[in-house]
């Protein structure tokens, strides 16, 4: 009888973990949609810069500079540290991207 209660508890626990994992999967899918990526990168850049950033530059930076894996890393840094540390990670990449863009133009 005692074993049955333990297994019922474990079964409900695993069901709850499955539900939370599915919610987390959908949260990451939404986070990695392109509009969400651009808004997040803009927020991180504006947290460390005094001037506003151009949305076209941010779109191009997300597409060709960071790509999806770079945005994911910045999300993870922001989630586990602070937005300022994410900006500290992102700023050299942004400056390098803008310098390369200025050389092309």
Automatic annotation (TrEMBL):
GO terms for biological process: monoatomic ion transmembrane transport. The keyword Membrane applies. Keywords: Cell junction, Cell membrane, Gap junction, Ion channel, Ion transport, Membrane, Transmembrane, Transmembrane helix, Transport. Pfam families: Innexin. Its main location: other. InterPro entries: Innexin. Belongs to the pannexin family. Structural component of the gap junctions. This is Innexin. The gene is Acey_s0205.g1940.
């Amino acid at each position: 009888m005692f074993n049955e209660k333990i297994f019922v508890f474990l079964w409900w626990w695993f069901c709850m973990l499955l539900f939370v994992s599915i919610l987390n999967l959908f949260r990451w899918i939404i986070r990695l949609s392109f509009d969400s990526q651009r808004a997040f990168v803009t927020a991180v850049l504006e947290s460390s810069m005094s001037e506003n950033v151009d949305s076209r530059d941010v779109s191009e930076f997300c597409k060709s500079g960071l790509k999806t894996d770079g945005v994911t890393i910045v999300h993870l840094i922001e989630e586990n540290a602070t937005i300022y540390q994410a900006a500290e990670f992102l700023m050299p990449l942004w400056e390098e991207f803008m310098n390369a863009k200025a050389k092309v133009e």
